[in-house]
């Protein structure tokens, strides 16, 4: 498991590194530390990692710009910051967790558990997903996403936006499990490869060979996994 | 635009006022219209006087008889009445009933004791005219008597009077102001209107006087408030004495005294007007301005001009100096434009209509000036309020700024780590932190602290940062520190700011250069930063320093902060203020 820590204060860096090693000892952690974001960025652009533990001065606009570019990447980002008041905003942009300084080992364990067990959390869910397109970071509002389709290690975000600038399909670097973790309750994994915003479902249809399909308000059709049908029906009736 | 509304309103009032003027002046000047052939009716023509010598009486010279020998009678206009004389006056009038006003009354405004007759019938006496100063019983300045219908047959009539003018008291340009037949009702209305208007203005001025005294004593002592208040008081006094002639029927021997009082009040008001602007703009060359305006006013007073002209010229000088001050201020800070325009209007008014200016313009114009002052003062009060609110905010912000949550939280994180790994080092950090808190709290209560103490605070902060970054940061001070005071916490704020926004190199030292020229102190803080630094400044640190300098009224202070090579340089220059010396 490859973990990157960005923290400019040596003692705090040491603390994060020490505790992370202790917690993830079973996962054979490989930890790389940077004391500024520039060096880290160049490393991240050439290497695949599992999680980024980032200390960012989020007070200026620069901090969030840097954060958004990391959130477009395939790995999850956990913020460790003294600027606790920025937590909600950070969650909205799709960080997996926000650890306020000073922090204990227990708090770090909690964050890693969430990372490892793909657990949805009690924190505010994301309002936007960052995508990197032609070197630029674009923010996509969760509200605009009809459904999400897995494509290997990537995902396709299918949008309802009629905006011509924004195509109706956008590729995201995170896999569907990671994306699911960040999304609000209304998104449901209806299929191994599909996540759907249930608010946008019109009806369920049974097709030949007892295959089920969801018909969305937009007219799009999304396949439903066999095991998921009962659950979906319940939820749709509930709504 | 809203702030000029009162002035616009005032101009309206002025317009109404001046439209009422012709009615007045027609009456006033009717004595002068004797030579106008187009209006021969109902005005006095051929005003003649003849002194009554000691061996004569009014009867012996047939003062009140018509058609007698007129060879030793002298033709004059009413404004040329002689002073210190006992004389007989007669004037002819051609009554034409159809064109006569509805309530015809005789209006006499002059300085003298009179005994008037109409066609040789007793009409009205005002005081007791006599041959000598001692015997004369002074009449009032104004006589108004209703002319009954039987006196006013169509045709020529004669008005005659014995008059003595021994008690004027001072050589005046003119002692005869008005002799006319007027509409009593109209006159009463005009007098009432003028009286109410001036009473209103006087009331306003007195209220302003009281308000600004209260403001000065109870809210905020300011020279300009005091000056404004006193100016209002004197203007109110001047206006009351000036307008007294309308509602106070005083004996004519008081008139010279009243004119003197007006002159003195005009002198004081004319002096206070430019002085208000000196105080308001906080000009430094107070003595020069006082000398200039006083000398010019004294010279004008010594010129031995008539009362009216002296008043006008005095006020002209006051306006001149006020205009100079305001124009200089426009160049300096852009303030004073509206005032300058009004003053220019006023000066134009004085030049083109000096006679109206004395009667009415002065009050109107003065009120206009006072209103601009009021607007300016209220603006200043608002600024003052904003400043004091800001000062409060800065005080509470100071600790927060220099002990920012992120600083505290990062330190606490360090402490957690140290406690778990190197408890001994944790103790060092705790001591340094508590030291910083203590010093900041102390500094927070003072505007200025000795530079020595501020440097100690910075060194302590640098020590904390050394522990945090596990590096050996040092601060070197170049220059004399003794006797220099510094706005509290600004150096600390600079150092703190550098750590927040830059990656600091420990290869070189922080350097603080202290230089001073006279009272001006220059502090230059050179912070060694690493080459590849992304400056993430939000500017709040700089904002704090600007605000702090503004709060301390350091008007000539300068602050600049820039990157130069691999250094971040902050320069502050300000006036050294030694608190101990200042409070002594």
Summary, kept brief:
By secondary structure, chain A is an alpha/beta fold. In chain A, about 30% of the residues lie in helices and about 35% in strands.
Helix and strand composition category of chain B: alpha+beta
What proportion strand of chain B?
15-25%
Spell the H/E element sequence of chain A.
EHEHEHEHEHEEEEEHEEEEEH
Task: Please give the share of residues in helix of chain A.
Answer: 25-40%
The biggest sheet of chain B amounts to: 6 strands, antiparallel
- Name the average pLDDT of chain B: 81
Strand line-up across the major sheet of chain B: 2-1-3-8-5-6
Rg of chain A, alpha carbons: 19 Å
| Number of separate strands of chain B | 16
Helical segment count of chain B = 14
CATH homologous superfamily heading of the largest domain in chain A? Response regulator
Largest sheet of chain A: 5 strands, parallel
**Total domain modules of chain A:** 2
Structural class of chain A: alpha/beta
Number of helices of chain A: 7
N- and C-termini, Cα separation of chain A: 41 Å
- Outline of chain A, from the CA principal axes? elongated
Low-confidence stretches of chain A: none
Rounded mean pLDDT of chain A is 85
Strand order of the largest sheet of chain A: 2-1-3-4-5
Structure report:
- The complex is a heterodimer of chains A (239) and B (584).
- By secondary structure, chain A is of the alpha/beta class.
- Chain A has helices at 10-23, 37-46, 61-71, 87-92, 105-116, 176-182, 229-238; strands at residues 2-6, 30-34, 51-54, 76-81, 97-100, 128-133, 136-141, 145-151, 154-159, 169-172, 187-191, 194-197, 201-207, 211-216, 221-224.
- Chain B has helices at residues 5-29, 184-219, 223-247, 255-280, 286-302, 307-333, 337-352, 354-402, 405-421, 423-444, 451-469, 490-501, 540-551, 579-583; strands at 44-51, 74-75, 86-95, 104-110, 113-118, 121-126, 142-146, 155-164, 176-183, 448-450, 475-478, 485-487, 510-517, 520-528, 558-564, 567-575.
- Chain B has a six-stranded antiparallel sheet, with no helix packed on it. Chain B has a five-stranded mixed sheet with strand order 11-13-14-16-15, with helices on one face. Chain B has a three-stranded antiparallel sheet with strand order 7-4-9.
- In chain B, a hairpin with a 2-residue loop joins strand 15 and strand 16.
- The longest helix of chain B is centred in the middle third of the chain and has 49 residues, at 354-402.
- The relative contact order of chain B is 0.06.
- The A-B interface holds A 8-12, 14-15, 18, 35-36, 38, 57, 59-60, 62-63, 81-84, 100-104 and B 405-410, 412-418, 420-421, 467-470, 500, 503, 532, 534, 536-538.
């Amino acid at each position: 498991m490859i973990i990157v820590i960005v923290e400019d204060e040596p003692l705090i860096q040491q603390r994060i590194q020490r505790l992370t090693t202790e917690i993830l000892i079973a996962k054979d952690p490989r930890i790389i530390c940077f004391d500024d974001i520039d060096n880290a960025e160049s490393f991240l652009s050439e290497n695949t990692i599992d999680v980024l533990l980032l200390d960012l001065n989020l007070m200026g606009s620069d901090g969030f710009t840097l954060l958004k570019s990391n959130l477009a990447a395939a790995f999850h980002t956990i913020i460790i910051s003294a600027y606790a008041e920025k937590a909600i905003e950070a969650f909205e942009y799709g960080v997996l967790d926000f650890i306020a300084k000073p922090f204990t080992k227990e708090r770090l364990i909690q964050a890693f558990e969430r990372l490892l067990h793909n657990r949805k959390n009690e924190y505010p869910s994301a309002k936007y997903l960052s995508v990197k397109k032609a070197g630029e970071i674009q923010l996509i509002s969760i509200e605009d996403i009809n459904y999400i389709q897995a494509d290997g290690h990537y995902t396709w975000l299918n949008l309802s936006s009629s905006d011509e600038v924004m195509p109706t399909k956008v590729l995201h670097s995170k896999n569907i499990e990671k994306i699911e973790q960040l999304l609000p309750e209304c998104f449901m994994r209806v299929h191994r490869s599909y996540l759907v915003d249930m608010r946008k479902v019109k009806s369920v249809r049974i097709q030949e060979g007892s295959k089920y399909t969801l018909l969305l308000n937009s007219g799009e059709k999304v396949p439903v996994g066999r095991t998921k049908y009962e659950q979906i029906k319940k939820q749709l009736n509930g709504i | 635009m809203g702030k000029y509304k009162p002035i616009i309103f005032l101009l309206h009032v002025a317009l109404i006022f001046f439209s009422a003027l012709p009615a007045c002046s027609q009456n006033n000047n009717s004595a002068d219209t004797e030579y106008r052939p187009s209006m021969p009716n109902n005005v006095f023509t051929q005003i003649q006087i003849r002194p009554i010598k000691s061996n004569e009486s009014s009867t012996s010279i047939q003062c009140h008889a018509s058609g007698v020998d007129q060879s030793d009678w002298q033709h004059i206009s009413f404004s040329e009445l002689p002073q210190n004389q006992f004389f007989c006056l007669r004037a002819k009038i051609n009554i034409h009933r159809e064109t006569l006003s509805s309530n015809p009354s005789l209006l006499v405004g002059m300085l003298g004791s009179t005994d008037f007759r109409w066609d040789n019938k007793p009409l009205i006496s005002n005081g007791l005219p006599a041959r000598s100063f001692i015997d004369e019983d002074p009449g009032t300045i104004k006589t108004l008597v209703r002319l009954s219908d039987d006196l006013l047959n169509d045709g020529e009539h004669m008005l005659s009077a014995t008059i003595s003018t021994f008690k004027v008291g001072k050589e005046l340009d003119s002692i005869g102001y008005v002799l006319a037949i007027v509409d009593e009702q109209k006159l009463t209305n005009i007098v009432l209107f003028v009286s109410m208007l001036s009473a209103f203005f006087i009331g306003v001025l007195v209220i302003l006087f009281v308000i600004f005294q209260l403001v000065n004593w109870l809210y905020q002592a300011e020279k300009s408030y005091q000056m404004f208040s006193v100016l209002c008081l004197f203007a109110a006094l001047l206006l009351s004495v000036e307008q007294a002639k309308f509602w106070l029927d005083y004996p004519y021997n008081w008139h010279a005294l009243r004119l003197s009082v007006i002159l003195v009040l005009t002198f004081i008001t004319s002096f206070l007007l430019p002085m208000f602007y000196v105080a308001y703009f906080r000009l430094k060359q107070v003595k020069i301005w006082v000398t200039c305006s006083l000398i010019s006013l004294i010279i004008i007073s010594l010129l031995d001009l008539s009362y009216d002209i002296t008043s006008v010229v005095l006020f002209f000088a006051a306006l001149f100096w006020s205009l100079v001050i305001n124009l200089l201020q426009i160049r300096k800070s852009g303030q004073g434009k509206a005032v300058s325009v009004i003053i220019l209007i006023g000066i134009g008014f004085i030049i083109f209509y000096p006679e109206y200016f004395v009667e009415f313009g002065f009050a109107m114009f003065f009120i206009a000036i006072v209103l601009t002052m009021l607007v300016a003062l209220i603006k200043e009060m608002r600024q003052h309020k904003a400043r004091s609110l800001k000062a409060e905010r800065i005080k509470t912000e100071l600790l927060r700024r220099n002990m920012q949550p992120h600083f505290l939280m990062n330190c606490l994180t360090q402490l957690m780590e140290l406690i778990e790994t190197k408890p001994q080092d944790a103790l060092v950090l705790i001591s340094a932190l508590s030291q910083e808190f203590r010093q900041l709290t102390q500094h927070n209560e003072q505007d200025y602290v000795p530079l020595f103490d501020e440097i100690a605070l910075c060194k302590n902060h640098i020590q904390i940062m050394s522990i945090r970054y596990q590096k050996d940061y040092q601060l070197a001070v170049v220059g004399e520190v003794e006797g220099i005071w510094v706005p509290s916490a600004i150096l600390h704020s600079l150092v703190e700011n550098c750590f927040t926004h830059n990656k600091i190199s420990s290869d070189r030292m922080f350097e603080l250069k202290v230089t001073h020229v006279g009272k001006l102190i220059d502090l230059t803080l050179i912070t060694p930063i690493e080459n590849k630094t992304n400056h993430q400044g939000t500017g709040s640190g700089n904002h704090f320093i600007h605000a702090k300098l503004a709060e301390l009224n350091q008007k000539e202070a300068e602050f600049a902060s820039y990157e130069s090579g691999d250094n971040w340089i902050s320069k502050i220059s300000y006036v050294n203020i030694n608190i101990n010396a200042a409070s002594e």
